Amino acid sequence: MTAVALDAAGLRCRARELLAAHPPATTDRLAFLQARFDAGLAWVHFPEGLGGLGAPSTLQAVVDAELEAADAPDNDPRRIGIGLGMAAPTLLRHGTDEQKRRFLRPLWTGQEVWCQLFSEPGAGSDLAALGTRAVRDGEDWIVDGQKVWTSSAHLARWAILIARTDPALPKHQGITYFLCDMTDLGVEVRPLRQLTGEAEFNEVFLTGVRIPDTHRLGAVGDGWRVARTTLMNERVSIGGMRLPREGGMIGPVARTWRERPGLRTHDLHQRLLTLWVEAEVARLTGERLRQQLAAGQPGPEGSGMKLAFAGLNQRISGLEVELRGEEGLLYDDWTMRRPELVDFTGRDAGYRYLRAKGNSIEGGTSEILLNIVAERVLGLPAEPRTDKDVAWKDLAR
Q1: Catalytic status, residue 234
Q2: Helix, strand, or coil here: 1?
Q3: What distance, in Å, lies between the first and last C-alpha atoms of the chain?
Q4: What phi, psi does 337 have (nearest 5°)?
């Protein structure tokens, strides 16, 4: 491509060159996405050769708008959200050059779906208490254990995985981070049926799974530090999604209010006004957070955004059910199925109400996030932790 300045005008020029060389109307979808990645227009703030140009991340919107106006295909980001929001930034920060070259391109194009093997039956909110073991065997690691609440495991080719490699160390110190091939022998995925009737979550059993040391991310025993990168990015991706005004859960409620005046009451009106304002404050705060992130790595502020997102979704969906009255109690389909994504706005009010209950659990429980905000944002004293310096093997379980 022509060498141009890495400003808004230059990126528009690059986007138009891409469109001219690969017209969306006549180019295969995957071929277009691969060409976009190779042109550095996937993540403009990533390094050259890895889908980016080293440009400010705020200029991504310029590229997206240009390509959207030309009806160019996207990479279906909702379907590959774990890869985009969690695996990619962790690979960028902690991966080797070889790992970045191998994984980032098919991750962004959606050829390879990712999932997250973190939570366990006995280690959810207290994730560092995890018990899945990884034992060194020559150039490989042998992994045994169980993970739970794994979104998209039934679709994923790869997983980000943390496992205990030294039980004699305190729980935060004896963990190592791996990239796990979900097609390997010993990986078993079982559906977990939810309140909605669906099974977008799974439990994953790992039995003698062999992971090469070349798929270790970061140093041995440094997995908790690497995992914190993932967790902070996860909370930003969940709570700080870019939305238009009345985007997300508040949109269907506002539309129903405008289109069906017979459902209105004074009390519902006051509650809707309050939630509308809170949703707009959260949206603008998320935009400010994204601008701050352009200058560095995500911090604990993402936890506050995710916390607000969970509470808002639950209160908005509850108001919607009340607004619709008896109709709000209806549910479209209890069929057991394993969806590819969570579609809050494309389903009915009953689905939104039921699915929103999980928002205060997934991506960090609200109780844990309150602690993070209190300690790391407000600077309040930390809660006493008697197990902090105790070897994991000596902890009561």
Answers
A1: yes
A2: coil
A3: 59
A4: -145, 165
Reported confidence tier of residue 241, pLDDT bands at 50, 70, 90: low
CA distances from 214 to 99, 134, 220, 365 (A): 8, 14, 12, 32
Is 63 exposed, middle or buried, given 0-12, 13-18 or 19+ CB atoms closer than 10 A?
A: buried
Catalytic residue among 120, 198, 234, 320: 234
* Ordered DSSP codes for 300-325: THHHHHHHHHHHHHHHHHHHHHHHHG
Comparing 218-222, 268-272, 315-319, 364-368, the range with the smallest average pLDDT is: 364-368
- Calculate the CA 133 to chain-centre distance: 25
Strand partners, 187: 206
Mean pLDDT, the chain, whole residue set: 91
pLDDT of residue 181: 98
Distance CA 285, CA 165 (A): 39
pTM exceeds 0.70 for this model: yes
